[in-house]
Amino acid sequence: MDLRALRQFIHLSQTLHYGKTSEAMHVSPSTLSRSIARLEDELGSTLFERDNRTVVLTQAGRQFREFAEATLAHWQDLKHRLKNNPIELTGQIRLYCSVTATYSFMSLLLTEFRKTYPNIEVLLETGDAAQAVQKVMDDEADIAVAPLPDQLPNPLLFKSLVKTSLEFIAPVSEGPVQAVLEETPIPWGQVPFVMSEFGLTRKRLDHWFRSQSLKPNIYAQVAGHEAIVAMVGLGLGVGVVPRLVLENSPLQNKIRVLDVEKPLQPFDVGVCVLNRRLQDPLVNAFWKTASTIQLKEST
Known about the structure:
Layout: H1 3-15, H2 18-24, H3 29-43, E1 48-50, E2 55-57, H4 59-83, E3 91-97, H5 99-103, H6 105-116, E4 120-126, H7 132-137, E5 143-147, E6 156-164, E7 166-171, H8 176-181, E8 192-196, H9 200-211, E9 217-222, H10 225-233, E10 239-242, H11 243-247, E11 255-258, E12 267-274, H12 281-291
Parallel strand pairs: 3-4, 3-5, 8-9
Antiparallel strand pairs: 1-2, 5-12, 6-12, 7-10, 7-11
C-alpha cells in the first residue's frame, strides 16, 4: 500500500469526483480507477459505490479514510522529526475562511506562516463564515476561520484571534426603509430585514426578536455577511453583521450603524481544527503560528 495511493484516495473521498481528483493529482482517470481498485482488492472491501452519475463513500471507505489520514500524518511527523527542521516541512494544507477574513487578519497570519514554512502550499477556499465549522467537521478543510459557536463540538479545538461586535446596519439613502426607521419608537416588527439563512448571526438575531416578542419582517435570506451589506446598501432592508465586515467593506459609505437598546452578543472570531488533525505536522504548524497572532479588537 503506497502513500501516493492513500493521497489519491483521500482526495477522491473529498471531491467524490474522479475527473477532479485525477486532474488535481496529475494522473489519468484510468490510473486513478486502477489505484482505487487495488486498494479495494487489498482490503477486500468496497470503498466507493459509483454509477454513471454519482460517487458515494461507503462505510468501509469512511473507516479507511481515518486510517489513511492517520498514516499520512504519522509519515509527515516522522519525516519532520528525522529532519528536525521546520523549514523542511512540505505538503498542502486546506484553509477555509470568509472573504472578509482574507481582507483583514488572514493576510497577516499567512505572511507569518510563510516566513517559517515557505515550502507548505496553502489551499485557500472562501465562503460563508456560517459554514466554516461544518467544513472542518466534514473534513473538507484542515483549519477554518469561524466565530466561536455557543456550544463547541467535542472533536473541535478553537483558538481566539479577535472579538468583534455585531451591528445593526441600515442604508444611508432615503427610501421606505429609512422612513420606517424614523418612527419613534422604531416598529421593529415592520422593518424589512435582510438576514443570514443560518449560522450564529441568525441565531443571535432570532433570539433578539424572541426576547421582544416580535416576529421579524424578513425581506430576504442570503448566504454571507458581505451579501447582507450589499443588499442593505441598496436600500432593501436592515441587517446585522460583525463590525469586522463593515471595516473591510467597500460599501461603508452606503451604510450607517443603528443604535439599539439591546445589542447582540459579540463574536469571538478565531481558528478551529479537529483535535486529531493536530497529529499532522503541517496542520500543527499553522495552529502554532495562529497562537502568535495578536489582533486589535473590532468593537
